[in-house]
Amino acid sequence: MKEILAGIIGGITFIIFLILLKINFIWAICTGVGGYLGTILLFPTKKSLEVELNLQGVSMEDVQRIISEGNQKIKTIRSYSIKINNSNVRKKIEEICSVADKIIEDLRVDPKDVKAARKFFTYYLDATTRIIQRYVELSGHGLNSAELIKALQKVEDLLDTIKQTFESQLEKLLEDDLFDLEAELKLLENTIKSEGL
Predict the structure, then answer these.
(1) Of all residues in the chain, what percent carry a pLDDT higher than 90?
(2) Residue (of 187, 54, 174) closest to 103 by Cα position
(3) Of 99, 81, 98, 103, nearest to 90 (Cα)?
(4) Rounded distance, CA 163 to CA 175, Å?
(5) Is residue 8 located within the same domain as residue 80?
(6) pLDDT tens per residue, range 121-174
(7) Do 37 and 118 belong to one domain?
(8) What is the C-alpha separation between 61 and 67, in angstroms, rounded?
(9) What is the pTM of this model?
């Protein structure tokens, strides 16, 4: 599949340079080959991905398990959320879950991010689940003692911090992806220069 995509991109690049930009045939072929090679470099093969994951001490099965467990934790958080009467708190929890979904999607698309996202999956999601579960339990008692109200307010205030932490984690993963892309582009640029294209 990757080779087909690379071939299409290389072919389109060739046509653009030959017909639209009216570059001579040899240079158009060179740019087409560059487009092909660039696509190959940007999208690692499953084998190279497995090697890179093994260097991190994980396998694709580990990544799939982490994704599955993460999805389950988010589902649990959402199930607690529907038990909360305060619509403001439910909205904050849904925003947290939405960012968590994006983190999981990033990991699904780029499994190499597993190392950078490990703390999110092993600590932040678990802690968030426990905090929201405890909030649901305490708010469900119907008591209005000053201590209980203070504790619930503390959790409600903490939800904003949790969301910011999740957003920071997502931003870090996306920055890693951007860094990887920049490295691949630099490699392609250097390859093209070294071949005199």
Answers:
(1) 31
(2) 174
(3) 81
(4) 18
(5) no
(6) 889 999 999 999 999 998 887 777 888 888 889 999 999 999 999 998 888 887
(7) no
(8) 10
(9) 0.64
